[in-house]
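Subject: Interface between my chains keeps coming out wrong

I've been trying for a while to get a sensible model of this assembly. When I model each chain on its own everything looks fine, but I need the whole thing in one frame so I can look at the contacts. Pasting all components below, labels as-is. Any help appreciated, I'm running out of ideas.
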Amino acid sequence: MSNVAIVTGGTRGIGAAISKGLKAAGYTVAATYAGNTEKAEAFRAETGIHVYKWDVADPQACHDGIAQVVSDLGAVEVLVNNAGITRDGWFHKMDYEQWSSVIRTNLDSMFTMSRPVIDGMRERGHGRIINISSINGQKGQLGQVNYSAAKAGVIGFTKALAAETARKGITVNAICPGYIDTDMVAAVPEKVLEGIIAGIPVGRLGQADEIAAAVVYLASAQAAFMTGAVMTINGGQYYAN
Ligand code: NDP
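Reply #2:
Try treating it as a single job with all components included. I did that and got this:
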């Protein structure tokens, strides 16, 4: 096996922790990013992890980007669909661009990234696809109709693709993080964040490493019987799938 893993949005936040976790587990990692080249180059210099810039919402860019990774590093064994954005606002004030940018980046990316790798995984009889959803895709969150819809869609995508590929040695799973200490959560107003933390039974935000550890497990040979699953990692905030 090639041991190549792609982590979208792999240069910052949860994705950076996943990239580092997979590298430590022996994978050759390609971490993608959207536009923050300064951050991505600093990440590359610090970790030695390969970085690639393309927009996960752009089908052609994904096709070309993945082809470049395969040519540089080898066939893709693990795909972690982690890149995501928020464009929060009350639905009655939400414009179409807020809706569609979140749907494209968080949900269309499941198709645009997974479609180019699936044929190779089927031919080789092995593959791992790990999708980062969210607690807010499970429970719905006010101010995030767009994001909750996209992240709930990620769960449906995961279960359906898992069923289709189970006999081909491919597993497809989703992780639903609760609130994790990254730039995305730093953008939440302080007062709102205090209220959020008060509602987390363990009494703190999660750490990106705590999500990365689950991804490393799902990528491993030991996780071969786990597919179509939704892993909830949220400090006890919400339990249902
Ligand atoms: P960050 O905002 O910290 O990092 C986002 C990463 O995604 C960056 O590397 C960014 O690249 C990349 N990215 C964004 N848009 C695109 C795009 N169109 N194409 C390619 N790459 C893109 O996010 P987090 O680490 O907080 O979140 C990671 C994932 O976890 C997301 O899917 C998020 O929805 C989910 N999540 C996060 C939670 C949290 O509490 N933080 C909770 C639940 C789920 P660049 O650096 O170039 O901008």
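Reply #3:
Confirming on my end. The chain has one domain: 4-233.
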